[in-house]
Design brief:
Length: 377
Amino acid sequence: MKPLSLTYSLADQDFARTKSIGIFNVSLQLGRALAEEPRLAQFTVLANHTLQRVLALPPRAEVVMCESAIGGRVERILWDQWKVYSAAQRAAREWLLLPKGFASFLRRPPVRLAVYVHDMMHDVYASEYPGQVPAIENQYFRRSMLATIRDAELIFTNTEFTAHEVRRVARKHSLPEPRVCCVGIGFERPPRLEVAREKRIVALTARWPHKRSDLAVAWLRRWQDETGFEGDIDLIGGLPPGTRCPARVGWLHSERLAESAYRELLHQARVLVYFSDHEGFGMPPVEALLAGACPVFSSLPPTLEAMGDAGLPFSNSDYDSFKRAMNRALGVPPETISGWAEKLLARHQWSQVAERVVTAMEEAAGTNTKHQTPNIR
């Protein structure tokens, strides 16, 4: 079999400006795992200067700097729609993998295209949250996702739930069913931090309505009133209009924390609270367990798929289920949390994810000719 070669695009990723820290981390860690995959004979990474400190790639990986990818909005669009394909063509690798989920709707890919899709949130917002995202922005990402479904020879997903969602959107738009492969997400054992476990709860929030930060604040406040909890409650992330951090002793709000500060906070906390109405995977509950905190999270199909029997889910429509989960979480013994963490580490390994990606590429090689006829739409 012909040796595989791959170009991997991280050039448009920047921690300081990303809208999704989860997608940023997955993209970075998947790139590192692929760089270690022995069946990839050649591996080129398209990057930018903000990633130099965190890439941590082996010497065999070729890194090409593409600074225009993190320029202004116009430069970003030009990168997405045109320049990333030109860079892949210059790299002369057989495959291009886009880890953020969106392909160009202006060009056909000049090489074999694989795309990692994290969720179908653009479709969810168009149908369930009309007007919450500017129409032109939603249209842009909708067209880019349809280009992914139409042009990618392989679509990788984090869960089987997301794989079903990709197929659903393809049917909705009368597109041929794409080749979708659930490869999952990996996690690494975090370094042990010598910090004391405190009577602290961390709740992740966001301005996006599907994250239900309004419900998180309301239910945590009600739970505190009913139980008399006297510890600290940290809200991490943005808050939607009309939602404020309660002016109470022990409540703190941070819009964003550096990665190191967030990891330290998880090691101090006893409980992580994670509300959401829609997810592709739901990484924070796994990360909480690995840091020794008990996750309490919305019971969604992809998150249940990812977590198995670990952690404490609750229903977004049932406050009492949330209260029971919170009360139990504060008393979960460390050995139970450690056991859950070990099971999840065994299930979610980056080396296995990279192996699935490369195996799918090997199986797809020579079976599709989309890449052989580049043209302009």
